[in-house]
Write a structure and sequence with these properties.
The chain is mostly helical and 227 residues long. The chain is built from 8 helices and 2 strands, in the order βαααααααβα.
């Protein structure tokens, strides 16, 4: 059996990234429940909040701390295959997202962005519709509503796969991803130091700008024409 390498705990995730993660978990759960229980008023309020968070994460993936930047963990297919090959021979620990996990991050962000975008134009065909639905044709609303419902089913399946992967890493690879996202610290091979984080005030400014962009745009949209 291969000997497990010596490890120590270092700073891996900054506070803005961790807060984003858990806020997103809570908001997505609330969106799913409100959609399933017909609480459309709450659903329509939470949607733009999720969109603001997603835009923040995209921006933080460019200007944020090292492990939060897409350039740090998004690699090509060759890197993902090399990671899989190395993982067969023992535990492989990366300081942030591993090359394979990067694809999961991108898929989740893309799926949630698609859900947020289609939700702006979707309708339940009874009492409520997205804040931008009146700007497009009824046929477009119907199509985007179907895509929104399909996206919901895909999201549930993806969340299930994500939880299964987290459990696999925790109990098989002995890599506690949840604990790291709570404390910000992770066990990595000895000799690897923690990283320096960006100022949290920068993250707050980025979040404020993204929130203002989303809600300001929605506020500027002309209301539906009265009949």
């Amino acid at each position: 059996m291969d000997r497990m390498p010596d490890t120590h705990r270092v700073k891996v995730w900054d506070l803005p990234t961790r807060l984003f993660h858990w806020l997103l978990v809570g908001l997505v759960a609330a969106l799913c429940l409100s959609g399933l229980t017909g609480r459309q008023g709450l659903h329509l309020l939470l949607g733009p909040m999720v969109l603001s968070l997603l835009l923040f994460r995209l921006a933080w993936g460019i200007v944020g701390s090292r492990t939060s930047r897409f350039s740090d963990f998004v690699k090509g297919p060759r890197a993902a295959l090399a990671y899989l090959a190395a993982a067969r021979h023992g535990a492989v620990r990366s300081i942030g997202h591993n090359p394979l996990g990067a694809y999961s991050v991108l898929a989740l962000l893309g799926l949630l962005l698609a859900q947020s975008a289609t939700g702006l134009f979707a309708s339940d065909d009874i009492f409520s519709q997205g804040p931008l639905a009146h700007l497009v044709s009824s046929g477009t609303v119907t199509t985007l509503s179907k895509l929104h419902r399909l996206g919901f089913r895909l999201l549930l399946a993806f969340v299930g796969l994500h939880l299964a992967a987290v459990a696999f890493y925790r109990f098989v690879k002995h890599d506690d991803l949840i604990g790291a996202m709570i404390t910000g610290r992770k066990s990595v091979p000895a000799g690897i130091d923690g990283i320096r984080f960006r100022n949290p005030l920068l993250a707050l400014a980025v979040l404020a700008a993204c929130t203002a962009l989303v809600w300001g745009t929605l506020a500027a949209v002309p209301p539906p024409a009265a009949f």
